[in-house]
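User: I'm preparing a small set of examples for a lab meeting where we compare how different chains pack in three dimensions. I only have the primary sequence for this one, and I'd like the structure in token form so I can line it up with the others. Please keep the answer compact; I'll paste it straight into my notes.
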Amino acid sequence: MFPPRCPVCREIVDERYQLCQSCAEKILRLDFSPEVPPPIKKVLRVARYREGLQPLLHKLKFENNLNVLPALKKILDDVSSCEEMLKFLDGINLAVPVPLHVERFKERGFNQTEKIFEDFLVKKNIPLKQILIRRVATPKLYKFGKAERQEILRGVFAAKEIIDLRGKKILIVDDIFTTGTTVSECAKVLKQLGAEKIFVLALSSDFSE
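Assistant: Understood. Below is the structure token output for the 209-residue chain.
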């Protein structure tokens, strides 16, 4: 009576939370950004944002709808054994989520990036650590271009505590990669803590589309 349906288009599928073949072909990407903001080494995305995961992420971030999480986690599971992902994660010492400001966290009740990636990282034996804090409550950034974002985010992030990251390979995880300004500012703080190399794994992005 209640067959499993694609979380994006609602087409009937074989497995719960599974993308249908049409949506999988349209949405899944698992490729590297041609433009990488310093001091980041590589940016790997899993899927498209617009014409892709945008509706699910909007429900999670702006409607606090946790019911979409299993579908997002399944997308990560489905690409977790791909050669590109395995090579990308090889040698990573720990993962760091892009932090929310304390007021935004209180309002939402959770950090959506942590919710999306926590199980995936556990399966990969990569610790997820809240090393960074967001010192300033910034406006929602989707309204702004790259130059405006750079001005808004300058100096926004800081270390939660002094931690020695010398010789470490760090993975920043985020739900959406757009201009790269946010993760670049996070990476600058991690570099100051001694991080050797910094990579970004984004659930979604629209680069090269």
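A couple of notes for your slides: Residues 6 and 106 are 31 Å apart (CA to CA). The chain has one domain: 28-205.

User: Perfect, thanks.
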